[in-house]
Amino acid sequence: MASHAPRTSESTQQLREDLNQLTQTIEELVNATADDSRSNIKELRERAEKRLKDTRERLETRGERIYDEARDSVTQQADACDRYVHDNPWTSIGIGAGVGVVIGMLIGRR
């Protein structure tokens, strides 16, 4: 799990840079509309559209990668839990009973 931290930090930094670039381009586009130079507006609009498209593609790719990593992690944890229950059935029954008692007490207080 510790190996995910540097990648997550790196992805977060890249996302910030992407969003900053997109924000700058959109601000330039808004500022350009103040003067009536049509060629300037068209150029900035094209740049904004390209950056928006690039940022969206990067976000989709990162989202898919994060989803895959989370799914794999949850699957590994579920498998580990399943192995533990099979290796220690009586301990698992005791833990389940204890959790059931606590939940029952909490529900009974209402």
UniProtKB/TrEMBL annotation:
<keyword id="KW-0812">Transmembrane</keyword>
<feature type="transmembrane region" description="Helical">
    <location>
        <begin position="90"/>
        <end position="108"/>
    </location>
</feature>
<feature type="domain" description="DUF883">
    <location>
        <begin position="13"/>
        <end position="59"/>
    </location>
</feature>
<keyword id="KW-0997">Cell inner membrane</keyword>
<dbReference type="Pfam" id="PF05957">
    <property type="entry name" value="DUF883"/>
</dbReference>
<dbReference type="Pfam" id="PF19029">
    <property type="entry name" value="DUF883_C"/>
</dbReference>
<keyword id="KW-1133">Transmembrane helix</keyword>
<feature type="coiled-coil region">
    <location>
        <begin position="12"/>
        <end position="65"/>
    </location>
</feature>
<dbReference type="InterPro" id="IPR043605">
    <property type="entry name" value="DUF883_C"/>
</dbReference>
<protein>
    <recommendedName>
        <fullName>DUF883 domain-containing protein</fullName>
    </recommendedName>
</protein>
<keyword id="KW-1003">Cell membrane</keyword>
<dbReference type="GO" id="GO:0043022">
    <property type="term" value="F:ribosome binding"/>
</dbReference>
<dbReference type="InterPro" id="IPR043604">
    <property type="entry name" value="DUF883_N"/>
</dbReference>
<dbReference type="GO" id="GO:0005886">
    <property type="term" value="C:plasma membrane"/>
</dbReference>
<keyword id="KW-0472">Membrane</keyword>
<feature type="domain" description="DUF883">
    <location>
        <begin position="82"/>
        <end position="110"/>
    </location>
</feature>
<keyword id="KW-0175">Coiled coil</keyword>
<comment type="similarity">
    <text>Belongs to the ElaB/YgaM/YqjD family.</text>
</comment>
<dbReference type="InterPro" id="IPR010279">
    <property type="entry name" value="YqjD/ElaB"/>
</dbReference>
